[in-house]
Amino acid sequence: MTSLKRNLPPLTSLVTFEAAARLGSFSDAARELNVTREAVSRQIRTLEAYLGLSLFERNANATALRDWGRQYFETVTSSLDAIARASQSFPSAAPPGPEPAAVAEVIAEGPRPRLLIVDDMPGNIHRLHDILRGQYDTIAHISASDTLDWLARGGQADLALLDVRMADMDGYALCRRIRADPRHSALPVIFLTSLDAPQDETEGFAAGACDFVSRPFAAPVLLARIAVQLELRRTTSALEELLQRRADRLEHAEALIRAIRAGVESYPG
């Protein structure tokens, strides 16, 4: 069982891949599974990172299965179909429910992204919480020093929203302190401030921010900018994992070649 768990790809990713490959569209798969297109794309990228292969050819207008993606689909779809038939063969098996909703529940499981909010104005924090609570978990601090203490104690977030003008330490300095910590150097930071001069934005990017949003802002625009940065972080992490996986495979292959060479050289004759 341990070996099976270690070598079996995530089931939710397999189900999502099967739907996208069968329907030929991420959007159609999202409608069938009752999830967002972004969720479908995320699940498929998880599977691709696991396999170390790109299963789909992607461009701005469409997606198409690669040759090895088609071969993998033939194996996956027949296996899932066999599992479904076997599950229904038992007399005590529950009658099938609405498949899209059931799959949606499985895909949606897992923690939501956590956003760190730092602003010394509680009213700003409350407004952000109202905007974000439908999609994200939030942790808020009203001072930079409290934020640094929380991070030092092991606090983790997927993205930070920082005000610039704060009493104890401005957002620029806080961002630089976060960037200096190797544990949080990759944390995406968005400045959310009433400052809107070009030099303010320039200083924000120089401090290490990935985006700069001026108040007043439209909630849908802020949500879109957050989603972009989170997706970039997920993609970067997946690429880093893929590169590490391939580096490990290369190291293993080189070790095997060295062992074979040593065996050949030591062979008598």
Automatic annotation (TrEMBL):
UniProt keyword annotation of Magnesium present: no
Domain Response regulatory: 114-230
Domain HTH lysR-type: 9-63
Organism whose genome encodes this protein: Pseudogemmobacter faecipullorum
InterPro entries: CheY-like_superfamily, LysR_HTH_N, Sig_transdc_resp-reg_receiver, WalR-like, WH-like_DNA-bd_sf, WH_DNA-bd_sf
In-chain residues carrying the UniProt-annotated modification 4-aspartylphosphate: D163
Keyword terms of this UniProt record: DNA-binding, Phosphoprotein, Transcription, Transcription regulation, Two-component regulatory system
PROSITE patterns xrefs: HTH_LYSR (PS50931), RESPONSE_REGULATORY (PS50110)
Name under which the protein is recorded: Response regulator
TM stretches of this protein: none
SUPFAM superfamilies for this protein: CheY-like, Winged helix' DNA-binding domain
